[in-house]
Structures are given as structure tokens and as C-alpha cells.
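Quiz preparation item.
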């Protein structure tokens, strides 16, 4: 007759079962309370935008992954971390400028920035003279040229107090927008050229065709991000004078300036400084007068001016 067949055994068994039935809910509650505390700690150090009321509901305890796991935002299985810099980020370790804070203009202040792309040209010195006569400072986004006249023009732009920015060395769309590497190679060439000639490390630039165009569709975001990472600031425009169009005239340019400028207090005006754009040069005094008469301050760009840029494509 052993213990397992005795009346004592059955007595103990019944008592044990009763004790389990009585205490099980308390053990369960203690367990749930503990997981709740753990959740709270995780959330406290993680995302404070989560709805805290749901944390304390039974739902969140039964399905803690709903609130505690970041996998609701991204798939951990497909995320890859970049362990090293991208190859083009390692290029040209002297191609960096210090980013400055943007300085907002007064909300109702009227201000216009005249910009000239594609120079130097046979017209640049005339443009500079006109600007001097009107006591106006402008911005020149230049390309690469190394003849004596062009070299003296880069210097004139800087010496007369205007802003000089990068427009690319070659301006050949198929080449510069072929890859981030190709863009950087081109940019580095003209950037150094300008620095060697003028002593200016250009901090501002303009994309040929504007930052978002049909040639850089697949790559513009990556180029922009790389250029911003290096501290450079780019400017598109909100008033196109149309001087780049075939058959543009002094009066078509003035008409474009008038009809497009009335929408804005802050204006970046797109013009061209190239051998064939006599109309731009001829219209310039009228453009300056227009902005003065309409109470715009006419200024040059620098990297503290909040950019006017094109929206990314949807
Ligand atoms: Zn251009």
C-alpha cells in the first residue's frame, strides 16, 4: 500500500487542485502587469507619438507587437544598412562648403534677384556696365571657359561685387546627368576653375535646365541630395524672362517679366548671358526699372537666401 493509493494522496491532490484554481488568476494578473510595465518602458524610449491609451488596454498586452515593434513602419528583413560611404561620397574631399543658416526676409518685403546663366560671353561686360550704371548687384551662374577674355570676365564679375555661382563646366545634359559621378566630375572642374581665377569658393549653383527637367528625371533626387550633403545651395527661378526661347524680343521679355512678377514678393529672375542673347542685354535697363518702380529691392543671391526651387515630380 503506497502513498499514491492512499486516502491521504487523494486529499492532497484535491487540495492542490483547489489551490491552483484559486491562485491561477493572480499569477496571470501578475504576469500581465509585468508585460505591461515592459511595454511602457519600451514605448517611453521609443515613439512618443503613439497613442498611450492603447498601451494599457488588454489588446496591446495580448498583441504587444502591434505597439512595441518598429516592424509596422518597415520590414526588418528587407532593410539593408550602408556600412560604408557611397563611392561618389568619397570623391573630392575638398568639394565641401560650410552651410549657412537661411535668413528669412520680412514677410511683405518685395525683393528681386536677377540671375544670368551660361556666361561668360561677349555680352557679359556690357551687362556688367549696365548693372553698374543702375547700381545693381546680380548673380552669374557660369560655365567653364579658359580663354583670356573669359578669365578676365570671371574676375570682373567678382571684383564688381556680384555673386558668382556654378552652372556646370560643359552644360551638356547627356553627360552631366548621366550619373552622380559624372555630375560631380563636371562640377568639380568648374568649381576649382572659379576658385583658382577669382579666389571665390562658390557656395551656390544652378542646374542646367533647372533642378527638375526631362534630362535628369531618374537621377535628380540623388544629385540634389549629394550636393546638399556637401553644403551647396541651389536656386531655380519663379520668373522666366523667356529669353532662352527662339524669337524672343525685348518686348516679349518685358511682357514675361511683367505678367509673371505680379504673383510674387520674392522673385528669382532667369536670364541668359550668352553671345546670341542681345535682347536680354537690351531689355535689362527696362527690367531693372520695372522692379524699382514696383518697389522691389534688387539684390544678389548668397547662400543665406532661402531658395526658390522646383517641386519634385509626383
Ligand atoms: Zn544654362
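Solution:
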Amino acid at each position: 500500500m503506497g502513498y499514491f493509493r492512499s486516502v491521504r494522496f487523494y486529499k492532497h491532490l484535491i487540495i492542490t487542485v483547489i489551490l491552483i484554481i484559486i491562485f491561477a488568476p493572480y499569477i496571470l494578473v501578475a504576469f500581465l502587469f509585468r508585460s505591461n510595465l515592459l511595454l511602457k518602458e519600451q514605448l517611453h524610449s521609443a515613439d512618443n507619438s503613439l497613442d498611450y491609451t492603447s498601451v494599457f488596454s488588454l489588446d496591446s498586452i495580448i498583441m504587444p507587437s502591434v505597439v512595441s515593434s518598429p516592424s509596422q513602419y518597415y520590414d526588418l528583413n528587407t532593410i539593408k544598412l550602408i556600412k560604408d560611404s557611397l563611392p561618389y561620397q568619397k570623391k573630392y574631399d575638398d568639394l565641401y562648403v560650410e552651410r549657412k543658416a537661411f535668413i528669412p526676409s520680412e514677410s511683405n518685403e518685395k525683393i528681386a534677384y536677377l540671375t544670368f546663366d551660361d556666361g561668360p560671353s561677349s555680352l557679359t561686360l556690357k551687362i556688367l556696365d549696365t548693372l553698374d550704371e543702375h547700381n545693381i548687384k546680380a548673380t552669374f551662374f557660369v560655365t567653364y571657359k579658359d580663354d583670356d577674355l573669359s578669365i578676365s570676365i570671371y574676375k570682373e564679375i567678382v571684383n564688381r561685387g556680384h555673386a558668382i555661382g556654378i552652372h556646370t563646366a560643359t552644360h551638356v545634359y547627356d553627360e552631366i546627368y548621366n550619373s552622380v559621378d559624372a555630375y560631380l566630375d563636371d562640377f568639380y572642374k568648374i568649381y576649382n576653375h572659379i576658385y583658382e581665377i577669382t579666389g571665390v569658393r562658390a557656395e551656390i549653383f544652378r542646374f542646367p535646365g533647372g533642378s527638375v527637367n526631362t534630362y535628369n528625371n531618374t537621377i535628380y533626387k540623388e544629385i540634389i541630395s549629394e550636393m546638399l550633403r556637401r553644403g551647396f545651395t541651389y536656386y531655380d527661378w519663379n520668373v522666366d524672362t523667356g529669353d532662352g526661347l527662339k524669337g524672343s524680343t525685348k518686348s516679349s521679355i518685358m511682357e514675361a517679366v511683367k505678367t509673371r512678377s505680379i504673383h510674387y514678393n520674392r522673385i528669382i529672375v532667369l536670364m541668359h548671358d550668352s553671345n546670341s542673347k542681345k535682347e536680354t542685354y537690351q531689355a535689362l535697363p527696362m527690367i531693372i526699372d520695372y522692379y524699382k518702380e514696383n518697389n522691389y529691392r534688387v539684390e544678389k543671391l548668397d547662400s543665406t537666401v532661402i531658395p526658390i526651387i522646383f517641386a519634385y515630380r509626383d
